[in-house]
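Please decode residue identities from the backbone states below.
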């Protein structure tokens, strides 16, 4: 069918037609809201590079989680900033670690929202790397043991799902085994499967105080140039027992999200990361972009690419827009 027989503009003529043929629709059900928790009381410290986002102590955190729940958001993703960091990331897996306490508090005060925990060590190590350092690099096999222990400690605190983000080989398998051994065989894993060594995590590292003190993350996170390797990473995670596979960041990697959608039958998550959030906020702040429209168009693109779940700092704002 070619012009003039076919005229695509016919069905763009009015909003009713446009609604009828719309292929992708955003829903609040798609959203996961990441939050940063710190110790103390009454703390709500703005994160400079992420306008509207805060490091919150538990009292404020619980209120924000309740607000998310009231907006219809199905899940939050928690990141903890411990009081003390050490070489061995002990704050990551102790019973009264910041995350373990936060999960218990949320489950107690705002139980009707899913709590997902990030399972990584970079917020807890004094050197800021995502695992144990041996001979100047992150040691894979000791790290995955610690990640397993960390996931179990989150499960014991009441987490509904764990999300390993350290990009260690075999981490999903090690966590699955540790959870199963501890009796948590029904706790799902959302695996950060294709996580790239991206500059778009910059604002997050301010928020989570987790920038590496030496070197970078290129020996464990993926090279942004690689697409086929992302598929290999995802195959590994699926084989090891991932329930949801994730691509991260989202907007610069829409092709990877699309490939994941086509190759796998599992739910696909995409992480619309801190730098993607900061870019839109900054441009909107300068008056250079319509921030709300840019937010909704970005989320729509991520969903159109094939994501079922979008992890985004925009979650409450987007949920509000979707209610209108
Ligand atoms: C922890 C982790 C990071 C992010 C999520 N989990 C930072 C990193 O890998 O350096 C980034 C999230 C964001 O930028 O919003 N490893």
């Amino acid at each position: 069918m070619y012009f003039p027989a076919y005229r695509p503009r016919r069905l763009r003529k009015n909003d009713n037609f446009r609604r009828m043929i719309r292929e992708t629709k955003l829903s609040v059900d798609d959203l996961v809201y990441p939050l940063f928790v710190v110790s103390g009381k009454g703390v709500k410290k703005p994160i400079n590079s992420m306008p509207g986002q805060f490091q919150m102590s538990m009292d404020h955190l619980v209120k924000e989680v309740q607000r998310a729940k009231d907006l219809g958001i199905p899940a939050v993703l928690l990141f903890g900033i411990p009081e003390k960091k050490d070489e061995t990331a002990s704050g990551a897996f102790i019973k009264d670690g910041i995350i373990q306490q936060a999960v218990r508090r949320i489950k107690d005060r705002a139980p009707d929202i899913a709590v997902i925990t990030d399972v990584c060590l970079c917020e807890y190590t004094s050197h800021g790397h995502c695992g144990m350092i041996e001979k100047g690099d992150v040691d894979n096999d000791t790290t995955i043991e610690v990640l397993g222990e960390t996931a179990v400690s989150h499960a014991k605190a009441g987490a509904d799902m764990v999300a390993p983000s350290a990009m260690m080989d075999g981490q999903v398998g090690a966590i699955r085994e540790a959870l199963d051994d501890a009796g948590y065989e029904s706790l799902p894993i959302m695996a950060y499967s294709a996580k790239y060594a991206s500059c778009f995590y910059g604002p997050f590292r301010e928020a989570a105080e987790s920038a590496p003190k030496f070197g970078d993350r290129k020996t464990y996170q993926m090279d942004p140039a690689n697409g086929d390797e992302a598929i290999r990473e995802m195959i590994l995670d699926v084989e090891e027992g991932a329930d949801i596979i994730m691509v991260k960041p989202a907007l610069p990697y829409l092709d990877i999200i699309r490939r994941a959608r086509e190759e796998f039958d599992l739910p696909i998550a995409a992480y619309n990361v801190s730098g993607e959030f900061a870019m839109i906020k900054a441009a909107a702040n300068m008056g250079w972009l319509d921030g709300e429209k840019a937010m909704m168009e970005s989320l729509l693109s991520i969903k159109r690419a094939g994501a079922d779940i979008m992890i985004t700092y925009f979650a409450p704002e987007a949920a509000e827009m979707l209610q209108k």
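Observation: The chain has a mean pLDDT of 97.
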